[in-house]
Structure formats: structure tokens, C-alpha cells
Specification:
The chain is of the alpha/beta class. It folds into two domains: 159 residues, Aspartate Aminotransferase, domain 1 (Alpha-Beta Complex), CATH 3.90.1150; 267 residues, Type I PLP-dependent aspartate aminotransferase-like (Major domain) (Aspartate Aminotransferase, domain 2, 3-Layer(aba) Sandwich), CATH 3.40.640. The chain contains 14 helices and 15 strands. Strand 11 and strand 12 form a beta hairpin. Helix 8 runs parallel beside helix 9 and helix 13 packs across helix 14. It is globular. It binds pyridoxal-5'-phosphate.
């Protein structure tokens, strides 16, 4: 197709008026079109232009847009209950959801706390970890993203602008590099060590020089790095990390807000390694893309042995959001979602590997289920990041009708878990054309 001139006139007029009234931190980051409607994996803008959705609303719309089989139960529940604060009055829709989440997640998790969204789930998890252990320090990972409120921005460390102005105000977090083989600052693990260089670093350096392990409540980690670029740690890392946690009585909290419910090719990414965490945070996909709902799951120690930590907020686990979440879980049982995710992974591996062979500007391509990423560099040897080329590729892809997500480190591609693999392959071909165009425009 001939690349679109964006924004079209109707989108341009709306964007101009929006930017005049919006906080610039939102206005300046908007896509160059205004959404008119969505259906399946198609976005349609005010000017009638169509885009294949390969962002899925930051992975919060897992199974295509506005599905009637999710909206139906939601509307029924809204008619029956209106809104109600689940902390004050329980609805009969909370129980089946809570029981089902406990039965689907690893056996270590026996309790649920309500949350409205991923950010609130992580905030809550951090409070619970400190309360359950009586210890102040939580270890996070450089590259990890957990939200943008004060606590979650300080726990996360995807890119420094997220926590700018906050870091110094929020003590109680220490960070170590995410176990990213492409950008590891470490030599291979030392003989006689933990078997993993990141965990050796925690043991040999962080704990030896700086932090008494008895002050640490635990670690919070994305099982597959999400916004930070789709990186899956090794099995050795997980073994070494869980041993470290057991040794010191630390809680292992996995942030499955993005990976949860199928995106990794497993219902939960921890299944890939058989990890039994102490806490798990869910959000995004849990509401099926039609309702905001999130959850903190925990072991008896992390979530069942005290009752004095306030959790959630007025709108967390509204009855209609519970109905949407239960309908979403039904849908995972009814439709071959995970099989399709594996097919999308296979398509991605093939197409992205071929793209990397064609373009030396690609440092690495990654595919974990329906979450895939292209990391662009100025030079393969130095691995200097090329954010300019990444953003230009994103923009050229939008002009060619494919919408992705340009994050801090990589072009992230996250289609609907049910996208037809053929359609996905065609979208990846378009992204390849966009990259070639961006390389030409920037003279890379
Ligand atoms: C891994 C992870 N944790 C937490 C969050 C915060 O979730 P939300 O923005 O839905 O509150 C996100 C959002 O992108 C995320 O990717």
C-alpha cells in the first residue's frame, strides 16, 4: 500500500484541540491518528484509515476488541448490581473468580487480594511483602517496568525518565541487572557459584558489600521482561534465584501483569520454568480487554497471616469487572488460545530471524509467545541503541497500516492472542518494509 499521510484531516483537527487542553506528557506521545472504532484486530481512525493492531492496548486487550461474549456478561452484571465497593459488600461474582484464580495459578498461591489495575496490584504486593517479612528492602531489576506511581516507578527501572524526580524520595529498593543475555554486564558465572551470573552478583556484591540479607523482604520480577523488550531469563537463573530466596526467607513476587493469561504461550509465564512464587500480580488481560481488574495472589505467609494492610481501592473488583474476568477465563477454556499463541511465536521466529539476517541494524530479535521484539542498534559490535531508528520504524509501520509499540529499548509487537497467524505474518512483513524505509530515510 502507499504509505498514509498521517494524521488525516479529521484526526489532525481532533489531535490539535486535544493537545491544547491535555497535559503535554500525554498529548505529545499520542499516535498520529484518532481512533474511531475497533473490531477484532482492526483499528479504524476518524478518517477511515485501518490499522492492524499489534499493540493490543499495551497487551490489555488479549483476544481481540470488544468481544460480545465478554461484553454480554459484563452488561448483565452491570444491570444487576450497578457498581459496588467489593471491600464493603461482597458480590457473588467475586467468589468464583477468586477460587478459579487460585486453582489456575501455582499451588503455592492460596489467597487473593483485589486490585483495580496492574499498578495497584504491584503497590499492594510491595506493602504485603514488607508486612509479611517485617523487612524494608525490596530488590527490583534494571530493565523492569511495574507502573508509574511513586512506588511502582521506584521499584521499576525500565528507563530513568519514569522515576525522574522520585527516585531519591522513595527509599527501600535496590536494583540489579535483569538477566538479559544480550546486554549482560557480567562475565559467565564463576565456578562454584550459584550457576547464574546475576545471582552471583547479588550474593558476592550486593549482599556482601551493601545490604544485609535479613533486611530484604524479597524480589519483584517480571518473569519475561515486558515493556523492556521481551527477554526470557534462563532456567539456571530461576533455580539460583529461588534458592537465594529460600536461603534468606525472601518472598519471590512475580509481576505477571503483562505475561499473565497466555501471552507467553503458557497461561502464566512461570509455568515455563515450574516456579512456585510467593506472590503473583495479574492485571491487563484479566479483564479480557473490556474491564479494568487486577489481582494479587499470595501464599499463606505472604497474604494469609495478617489482616491489617489495606489493599485495593473503591473500584477494584467491581461486580461487572469480575463478570468480565470470569468470562475471559471461560474463553480461554473454550478456544484454542495457547495453541494459537504458539503458532504466532513460530511465525514470529521465522519472519524476525529472516529480517535480522537482512538488516545489520537489528541487534537482536526475540519472540516469547505472542510477545515479540526487535532491538535496533547503531552497530552490532558496540550494541549502541538506536532509538531514533526504532521510533522511525514505528512511524513508518503506522503509515503502512500496522500499529506496534515503541518502548524504551525495542519495537515491541504484541498481537491479539487469537490473531490469525497468516495475518500476523503479513503484519510482520509490513514491519520489515517499514524498517527498510526508516533505514533509507535516516541513512543508516
Ligand atoms: C509488567 C507490568 N507491570 C505493571 C504494569 C502496570 O499496569 P497498569 O498500567 O495496567 O496499571 C504494567 C503496565 O504496562 C506492566 O507491563
Amino acid at each position: 500500500m502507499t504509505p498514509l499521510d498521517l494524521p488525516g484531516p479529521r484526526s489532525a483537527a481532533t489531535l490539535e484541540r486535544l493537545r491544547a487542553v491535555l497535559y503535554p506528557g500525554i498529548g505529545e506521545h499520542l499516535a498520529p491518528f484518532v481512533l474511531d472504532r475497533k473490531s477484532g484486530s482492526t483499528l479504524v481512525d476518524l478518517d477511515g484509515n485501518e490499522y492492524v493492531d499489534c499493540a493490543s492496548a499495551s497487551a490489555s486487550v488479549p483476544l481481540g476488541a470488544a468481544r460480545e461474549d465478554l461484553i454480554g456478561p459484563l452488561v448483565d452484571a452491570l444491570r444487576r448490581y450497578g457498581n459496588e465497593d467489593g471491600h464493603a459488600i461482597a458480590s457473588d461474582l467475586a467468589l468464583p473468580l477468586a477460587e478459579r484464580l487460585i486453582s489456575l495459578t501455582p499451588a503455592s498461591l492460596t489467597r487473593v487480594a483485589y486490585a483495580l489495575n496492574g499498578t495497584e496490584a504491584i503497590e499492594t504486593a510491595v506493602k504485603l511483602m514488607r508486612r509479611a517479612t517485617g523487612r524494608p528492602i525490596v530488590i527490583g531489576f534494571l530493565g523492569g517496568y511495574h507502573g508509574e506511581t511513586t512506588t511502582t516507578a521506584a521499584l521499576g527501572a525500565e528507563e530513568n525518565e519514569i522515576s525522574a524526580g522520585l527516585r531519591a524520595l522513595v527509599p527501600g529498593f535496590a536494583h540489579v541487572p535483569y538477566p538479559n543475555p544480550y546486554r549482560s554486564p557480567f562475565a559467565p558465572p564463576r565456578p562454584g557459584g550459584s550457576g547464574d551470573a546475576t545471582v552471583d552478583y547479588i550474593r558476592d556484591h550486593l549482599l556482601f558489600h551493601a545490604i544485609d540479607p535479613a533486611e530484604v523482604a524479597g524480589v519483584v520480577i517480571e518473569p519475561v521482561l515486558g515493556s523492556g523488550g521481551c527477554v526470557a531469563p534462563s532456567a539456571e537463573f530461576w533455580t539460583a534465584l529461588t534458592e537465594l530466596c529460600h536461603e534468606h526467607g525472601w518472598l519471590l513476587c512475580v509481576d505477571e501483569v503483562k505475561t499473565g493469561l497466555g501471552r507467553s504461550g503458557h497461561l502464566f509465564a512461570v509455568e515455563r520454568w515450574g516456579i512456585e512464587p510467593d506472590l503473583m500480580c495479574l492485571g491487563k488481560a484479566l479483564g479480557g480487554g473490556v474491564a479494568p481488574i487486577a489481582a494479587v495472589l499470595g501464599s499463606e505467609r505472604a497474604l494469609g497471616s495478617f489482616d491489617d494492610v489495606p489493599t485495593g481501592s473503591t473500584w477494584s473488583w467491581l461486580p461487572w469487572a469480575c463478570a468480565a474476568a470470569s468470562a475471559t477465563l471461560d474463553l480461554f477454556e473454550r478456544e484454542p488460545v495457547l495453541e494459537n499463541v504458539r503458532a504466532l511465536e513460530a511465525v514470529g521466529r521465522k519472519k524476525l530471524d529472516a529480517l535480522a539476517e537482512r538488516h545489520p541494524q537489528i541487534g537482536e530479535v526475540r519472540a516469547v509467545g505472542a510477545f515479540q521484539a526487535i532491538e535496533l542498534v547503531r552497530d552490532r559490535a558496540s550494541k549502541e541503541r538506536d532509538r531514533e531508528l526504532q521510533d522511525a520504524t514505528w512511524a513508518e509501520a503506522v503509515r503502512r497500516g500496522v500499529f506496534t509499540d515503541s518502548s524504551s529499548t525495542s519495537l515491541n509487537i504484541q498481537p491479539s492472542l487469537l490473531m490469525d497467524p497468516g495475518e500476523y505474518g503479513a503484519a510482520l512483513d509490513t514491519i520489515g518494509e517499514a524498517l527498510a524505509a526508516a533505514i533509507a530515510v535516516l541513512g543508516r
